[in-house]
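Example record

One chain of 610 residues, shown exactly as stored in the release files.
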Amino acid sequence: MDFYNFYTGHEFEAYEFLGAHYSKEATVFRVFAPSARGVGLLISGVEYPMTKIYNGHFYEITLPDIKEGTCYEYRVYSGSGYTDHADPYGFGMELRPAHCSVVRDINSYRFHDQNYMKSRRDTKERPVNIYEMHLGSFRKPSDKADDWYSYGEIADLLTPYLLESGYNYVEFMPLCEYPCDESWGYQNTGFFAPTARYGTAGELQELIDKLHQNNIGVLLDFVCVHFAVDSYGLMRFDGSQLYEYPNSDVGVSEWGSCNFMHSRGEVRSFLQSAANYWLKEYHFDGLRVDAISRIIYWQGDERRGENKNAIDFIKVMNGGLKERHAGCILAAEDSTNYPNVTRSLGEGGLGFDYKWNMGWMNDTLEYFRTAPEYRTRDYHKLTFSMMYAYNEDYLLPFSHDEVVHGKATITQKMSGYYEDKFPQARALYLYMMLHPGKKLNFMGNEIGQLREWDEKREQDWELRKYPMHDSFYHFIVELNQYYLTMPAFYSGDYVREGFLWLDCHRESDCIYAIQRNACGKDGERDKEAGKAAEAICGIFNFSKEAKQYPAPFIDDAKYRVLLNTDWERFSGGTKEEAESYSKGEIILLPPYSGILFCRVGDEVTEKEQQ
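Predicted structure tokens for this chain:
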């Protein structure tokens, strides 16, 4: 470890020095505790005094014949006595409520994803369709709240499901060890320790390896704003506020947790090393960084001003990760209007690849909650997002946050009764796919789940027994496959030439028409698309009445119907027929419907779609 970089906040490999480093012959334990009067290593109730090294701020001990899986703690002495703490850099922890660190050999697993890792590259002109999930409640072996499948068992359940369903990325909610199930992993105690709920470090590495071998990217939700207040964790680790602010006005978060003090180089190096650790040692393809508004502004409140030190930290972290991990994805969960979140560091930005488009999400879901008779009034809730669509490189999220705590699930949010909700939800998802930006959908949304997410229960997979839910799932699968195989859906996400309103002034009819064009980052038409669609169009009727509508296509070509959200096989009322239209021809738009068209001659064949 470079000690100068550690203290100045530029170290990314601190975990290679600190923590418990296992070998069959001996295990080396090192901990950073600058204000401590002394530190002892506790194993099975026996305390082994540790020796001060370097400048006296670090402690070390080497013990022979330590078995992998051995539990240990640090007894940290201060002026007021001592406190027992888990290892801040520990590679494993016990399952709550136990909380000792666990010796793990993170180098024992051998990955088989070399071809995948070599092929990883920038995703701006590629499809990114993310399945967000809470690993413990995707599927469960029993009805018990604390009964979970292991990482390895989940791999065998999850991989074929993602392939079948048309998702090419999975995003796991936080997997760093955490004490409270209800926090979902957003209040951590072990920033380098995969949660023991689902197994060991090697088993998590195996899960990611299996996903990669099936060309599925893996993202991790990463928390670098705050940490849990449990006494064995980071709080007052060496008797002082080593990781947190000394002032409670900025030191305590709105969730009651401790805010990291990002002005300290040692804290920055801790967090940067954790981020690098997950990407390097586990082969994660990127991070969704939580609560960026609390990085940008003090306590997330714009009125309190920018937190310059925290902003500098996120820039250094993002820059360092990009240098070390080609093609990795860094996504910001940020609800503020702070500019240039997805601009490069050289352009004065924060260096993220994507920003969650919370404005689009809120406006869109609010529109679909609204009774149809009021949608003429709210018509431009759906057009407003294109006024700022190119300010950042956005990702469109229907995430876990939108299906809990009384908010209702995505399908539930649709206006009206049960029979009305599904056609609207199908049209909503087609609209989402045609809107610029990468996509994220939380587990259960794809089956039209009507029960809010509960981390203690698995998803309601039995809903697939009911035709309305099963047909909804098959609609999502078909839509996902079109998204993955047709460059017009994704290659022009971040250039103005990739999107065109064909019609956005049918306020009285609640009709919208969109064209997406396959084009590269410079706005040029995609010359390598081959038979994949060069242009696709979507026409939507979000009113409760059928409409006759003249086709708004901009050229004289024929356009064929690829997908109609009202087809009978999706539990709609329209018979599926081979249909094509020219500009000006009348199209019948069923209530609450969307129709996807492609230019004749640009179709994706069934073989190519599969």
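Notes: Residues 41 and 74 are 5 Å apart (CA to CA).
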